[in-house]
Amino acid sequence: MNQYDAGQAERLLAARVCLDELEERLKRQPHIETAALHDLAQRRPELDKLRRLGATEPRREIDFFRMLGVHHAEEAHSNFLGWLLDPEETHETGSTFLREFLAKTAKTAEEQRMSGIGLSRVQAADWSDTEVRREWKYIDILLLNEREKIVCAIENKIRAPEGISQEGVSQLTRYRRLLEAEFPNHERHFVFLTPSGMESGIKDERRFWIPEGYAAIHQTLEDLVEQSDALEGSDAGYALAQYVTTLRRNIVTSESEVAKLARRIYLEHRTALELAFRHKPDYKAELGQMLKEAIAEIDGWLLDWSTPAFVRFRPTSWDRFDPQRSGTGWPPSKTLILFEVNCGEDPLNSKLQLCLGPGESAPIREQVFDRARQDPSVFRAGGRLQDYTHLLKPVDLLEEEDFGPAWDSGATATRLRDRLSRFFEEQFPAIDELIAGCLENADSS
Fold it and tell me: Which letter, b or e, does each residue of 160-172 get, where b requires 16 or more Cβ atoms within 10 Å of its Cβ?
């Protein structure tokens, strides 16, 4: 047994011991079941966060910042933040993001007893006329509100520390002194923004420059996108969601955030989660049963040779043609062409297909295949003819929401029947015309 197999066996043994222990505890203390599940239900915010992270974790998620190679470029992030902080820009959030970001930095300043505008001042101020300047006298982002007499400097660092001259003078010191001279009658607020929220390397500047991490931007923006109905489906909402993705994947956290949160939730609620896992739906088998019941309710359709992984069926109208009964691919069935749904390990990918299987007559199969290739608006036949050839553009039967409470309530089964019915009413007539025509021609010849 190699090292990998040994480790896997050890983990399986540990899991078995864990389940045995749970069973014994539940026998001795039945109330543990309801108590554990109730406790887990109280952690809904954490579970919702895990669901959101899990939904966006896959690598196939689009990240335009990474695609353009600017996911770690300070200038790109400063440009985007300048756009976000400007109340007059096209992000459709007005001064909301600006206010929330300044409120977080003000709270940090108060907690660490640093200089800066107070939280109550941020919340009471009118930020609608705030001017945003990029690279004003080399300051990454300058926020100037003449009405409220407030000026804020944001120095943004992604992968580099603050600049320090050969004389030992920090760029933060120069910027602070510059603003003190330029805006002597304004309240001044200095923010040192980095991925981790690091402090200035110069001790004297730590009294002035508020250390803030990108987590503050990520959380503020994520909340804004989720809570704003106006952003849903809009270009601005898509742009903001893209930036949330970029921050989460490249700046704020490591890729193990999902694993860390999932592990912590499991350790805190092991009893409830093990119990829930043991009673999770058997999606594969239950989907197969839903499909069989749905097909049985549709006139003119008949279930064909199926397995636990595949549900197959055919229109009885094709049975009148001898070529349709010349198949050899699904014994004991003699069907040549049938519909099938793969109820595999991932039911979300279960799609309706039209399959041309092996048969006794090669010319008949070639005729059907060639005819299907002539109508790409309905069929997807391409390449070369194989033993099992899918002729149809795959038809989605399920959506993510179908795997929630709707699964047990009967709503998923109803939606499945409705989608199949629409397919047979709207798309099947064109398919039937071509396939029946091919079978009829082959039959007569």
Answer: eebeeeeeeebbb
